[in-house]
Amino acid sequence: MSTIPADVRARLETEYDGADLIEALELIEALDFGDRVARCVVFLAKGGLLELASYAEVARIDWRDVIFWAEYIDLNAKHPKQVRDMTQPFAQE
Predict the structure, then answer these.
(1) Residues 49-57: contacts with CB within 8 Å, 24+ apart?
(2) What pTM was estimated for this model as a whole?
(3) Nearest CA to 39 among 16, 18, 69?
(4) Using CA atoms, how far apart are residues 79 and 43, in angstroms rounded to an integer?
(5) pLDDT tens-place values along the chain, 93 residues long
(6) Which strand (E) or helix (H) includes residue 55?
(7) Rounded CA gap, 81 and 72, in Å?
(8) Is the Cβ–Cβ distance between 6 and 90 less than 8 Å?
(9) What does the alpha-carbon distance between residue 15 and residue 34 come to, in Å, rounded to a whole number?
Protein backbone atom coordinates (compact mmCIF):
# COMPACT_ATOMS: atom_id res chain seq x y z
CA MET A 1 0.00 0.00 0.00
CA SER A 2 1.17 3.48 -0.77
CA THR A 3 0.76 6.72 1.08
CA ILE A 4 -1.70 9.12 -0.50
CA PRO A 5 -0.16 12.51 -1.31
CA ALA A 6 -1.71 15.42 0.62
CA ASP A 7 -3.07 17.09 -2.54
CA VAL A 8 -4.72 13.87 -3.72
CA ARG A 9 -6.24 13.26 -0.27
CA ALA A 10 -7.58 16.84 -0.22
CA ARG A 11 -9.13 16.38 -3.68
CA LEU A 12 -10.75 13.10 -2.64
CA GLU A 13 -12.13 14.74 0.51
CA THR A 14 -13.65 17.46 -1.67
CA GLU A 15 -15.20 15.08 -4.20
CA TYR A 16 -16.40 12.25 -1.92
CA ASP A 17 -17.91 11.91 1.54
CA GLY A 18 -18.94 9.25 4.02
CA ALA A 19 -18.59 5.66 2.86
CA ASP A 20 -17.69 6.83 -0.66
CA LEU A 21 -14.68 8.73 0.71
CA ILE A 22 -13.47 5.69 2.61
CA GLU A 23 -13.78 3.54 -0.51
CA ALA A 24 -12.08 6.18 -2.66
CA LEU A 25 -9.18 6.43 -0.22
CA GLU A 26 -8.83 2.64 -0.18
CA LEU A 27 -8.81 2.47 -3.99
CA ILE A 28 -6.08 5.09 -4.30
CA GLU A 29 -4.09 3.72 -1.37
CA ALA A 30 -4.01 0.30 -3.06
CA LEU A 31 -2.31 1.73 -6.16
CA ASP A 32 1.45 1.25 -6.01
CA PHE A 33 2.42 3.34 -9.00
CA GLY A 34 3.31 6.63 -7.33
CA ASP A 35 1.78 10.06 -7.00
CA ARG A 36 1.49 10.73 -10.74
CA VAL A 37 -0.72 7.72 -11.43
CA ALA A 38 -2.86 8.45 -8.37
CA ARG A 39 -3.42 12.01 -9.61
CA CYS A 40 -4.30 10.75 -13.08
CA VAL A 41 -6.86 8.27 -11.74
CA VAL A 42 -8.50 10.90 -9.50
CA PHE A 43 -8.49 13.50 -12.29
CA LEU A 44 -10.07 11.14 -14.81
CA ALA A 45 -12.77 9.95 -12.37
CA LYS A 46 -14.17 13.50 -12.01
CA GLY A 47 -15.79 12.68 -8.68
CA GLY A 48 -17.46 9.44 -9.75
CA LEU A 49 -16.81 6.46 -7.48
CA LEU A 50 -17.49 3.88 -10.20
CA GLU A 51 -15.20 5.80 -12.53
CA LEU A 52 -12.51 5.93 -9.84
CA ALA A 53 -12.69 2.15 -9.45
CA SER A 54 -12.63 1.69 -13.22
CA TYR A 55 -9.59 3.92 -13.78
CA ALA A 56 -7.81 2.32 -10.82
CA GLU A 57 -8.34 -1.06 -12.49
CA VAL A 58 -7.02 0.29 -15.81
CA ALA A 59 -3.94 1.58 -13.97
CA ARG A 60 -3.33 -1.87 -12.50
CA ILE A 61 -3.45 -3.37 -16.00
CA ASP A 62 -1.30 -0.68 -17.66
CA TRP A 63 -0.57 2.53 -15.77
CA ARG A 64 0.59 4.23 -18.97
CA ASP A 65 -3.00 4.38 -20.22
CA VAL A 66 -4.21 6.62 -17.39
CA ILE A 67 -1.16 8.88 -17.77
CA PHE A 68 -1.81 9.23 -21.48
CA TRP A 69 -5.51 9.95 -21.01
CA ALA A 70 -4.98 12.47 -18.21
CA GLU A 71 -1.94 14.28 -19.57
CA TYR A 72 -1.99 14.02 -23.34
CA ILE A 73 -5.58 13.98 -24.52
CA ASP A 74 -6.73 17.25 -26.01
CA LEU A 75 -9.94 16.68 -27.95
CA ASN A 76 -9.26 19.80 -30.01
CA ALA A 77 -5.82 18.70 -31.18
CA LYS A 78 -5.11 16.54 -34.20
CA HIS A 79 -2.21 14.78 -32.51
CA PRO A 80 -1.57 13.97 -28.86
CA LYS A 81 0.38 16.60 -26.99
CA GLN A 82 0.94 17.13 -23.30
CA VAL A 83 -1.77 19.43 -21.97
CA ARG A 84 -1.26 18.92 -18.21
CA ASP A 85 1.47 17.63 -15.91
CA MET A 86 0.29 15.19 -13.25
CA THR A 87 3.74 15.05 -11.64
CA GLN A 88 2.74 18.37 -10.07
CA PRO A 89 0.32 18.51 -7.12
CA PHE A 90 -3.29 19.48 -7.71
CA ALA A 91 -3.80 23.21 -7.21
CA GLN A 92 -5.41 23.96 -3.88
CA GLU A 93 -8.71 25.70 -4.50
Answers:
(1) 49/16, 49/20, 49/23, 49/24, 52/24, 52/27, 52/28, 53/27, 56/27, 56/28, 56/30, 56/31
(2) 0.91
(3) 69
(4) 21
(5) 568 999 999 999 999 999 999 999 999 999 999 999 999 999 999 999 999 999 999 999 999 999 999 999 876 777 888 999 999 999 864
(6) helix 49-61
(7) 5
(8) no
(9) 21
